[in-house]
Amino acid sequence: MNVLVVGGAGYIGSHCVRQLTAAGHRPVVLDNFVYGHRGALADGVTVHGGDLGDESVVKRILRAEKIDVVMHFAAFCYVGESVTDPLKYYLNNSADPLHMLNAMLSAGVKKFVFSSTCATFGVPTTLPIHENLPQAPINPYGQTKLDLENALRALATATGLSFAAFRYFNAAGAAEDGSIGEDHTPESHLIPLAIQAATGQRPHLELYGTDYPTPDGTCLRDYVHVDDLSRAHIAVFDKLAQPGAALFYNLGTGRATSNREVIRAVEKATGKKVKVIEKPRRPGDPPALYADSAKAQRELGWKIKFPTIDSIVATAWKWHSAHPQGYADR
Ligand SMILES: NC(=O)c1ccc[n+]([C@@H]2O[C@H](COP(=O)([O-])OP(=O)(O)OC[C@H]3O[C@@H](n4cnc5c(N)ncnc54)[C@H](O)[C@@H]3O)[C@@H](O)[C@H]2O)c1
Asked: How far is the CA of 90 from the centre of ligand 1 (A)?
């Protein structure tokens, strides 16, 4: 398959590009490099600089590269910023992708894979979170993702577009060979922050909330390896052959890992102590979020290669120890 990977220079997209190549597909990247890194992409990968909201650019690439499937990883993902600057999020995450979809339909490309998020569920009514739980986002970031899910549903019915929306839990880890990995600016994810605190790149780690109703008082989250996520995107291709397929899958390991357990895993992998400063809870952080991914495992044959936090952190440490400053193009 010729696959347009939109946001392919970002963290998850770049790992998917590698997995696509390894599986014998041809990834073509579209990224505006607001957050992406050229260093995350191998030399042989075709890269187009441009914005997904530019219909003429998208249409030209779809036709010239004979694209079969579009994978959409490009979004802004800072929950706090989405609260203070919601318009930035509604434009980039909800409105602009509609232009990309319009370009796809006029170019006759009708297969789409979308990076959605567990944030569409808000504070879940029960755990683990399966696909049929009510979706009630508690911040604009989650709402923008739900808006696009809903638009896709309508388009599938009206136009025969087939799509899969994957609700990721906490994407984590790096390529097993340590060659590519996570490099967000600013960094907001716990594993890289804890690694930076362990190596002295930041003075300490701020731990928000130690009085949650959880076994050790800290939040529980579901860490899923970035390569496991990528493999699900490829495993869904067969199902997209069905016109109008509207597919939703929650992707996590199903394991609830506390913030303190993440810190311990980082200390174990690095052999260094993480200096922690305990802070009050942050508003809007649910105590526990973890997935029921039985549907993806059953329907896609999705297999989790990295089920434990130790196995995930080990790959993250391999990347960070080899690239303490991240990509060279920062
Ligand atoms: N990282 C996580 O834990 C996580 C969890 C749930 C969902 N997600 C979703 O997964 C996707 C990828 O996340 P990530 O961590 O790889 O983010 P990232 O910021 O590393 O990658 C996003 C990429 O998209 C590009 N981009 C953004 N807007 C664009 C536009 N308008 N046109 C072209 N390119 C654009 C950026 O330059 C960047 O390279 C996002 O949609 C995010 O919402 C991530």
From this structure: 14
Q: Determine whether domain 190-221+254-322 maps to CATH 3.30.428.10.
A: no
Which residue's CA lies nearest to atom 12 of ligand 1? 73
Between CA 329 and CA 14 the distance in angstroms is: 15
Going from N- to C-terminal start, the domains of the chain cover 2-172+223-251, 190-221+254-322
Please indicate, yes or no, whether the overall pTM of this predicted structure exceeds 0.85. Answer: yes
| CATH superfamily for domain 2-172+223-251 | NAD(P)-binding Rossmann-like Domain (3.40.50.720)
The verdict on whether 35 is a catalytic residue reads no
Nearest to 216 by CA among 165, 278, 145, 307: 278
pLDDT tens for 181-204 read 999 999 999 999 999 999 999 999
- Average pLDDT for 242-251: 98
Residue nearest to atom 35 of ligand 1 (CA): 74
Q: How far is the CA of 217 from the centre of ligand 1 (A)?
A: 30
Query: Of ligand 1's atoms, which has the minimum distance to the CA of residue 168?
Result: 6
- pLDDT tens per residue across span 294-313: 999 999 999 999 999 999 99
Strands 69-72 and 111-117: what pairing? parallel
Catalytic one among 11, 141, 212, 249?
141
Contacts of 290 (CB under 8 A, 6+ apart): 127, 128, 129, 169, 220, 221, 222, 252, 254, 255, 256
- How much is the pLDDT for 330? 56
Strand partners, 46: 28
Question: Which ligand 1 atom sits nearest the alpha carbon of residue 9?
Answer: 39
- Name which residue sits closest to atom 34 of ligand 1, judged by CA: 31
Q: Per residue in 140-192, pLDDT tens?
A: 999 999 999 999 999 999 999 999 999 999 999 999 999 999 999 999 999 99
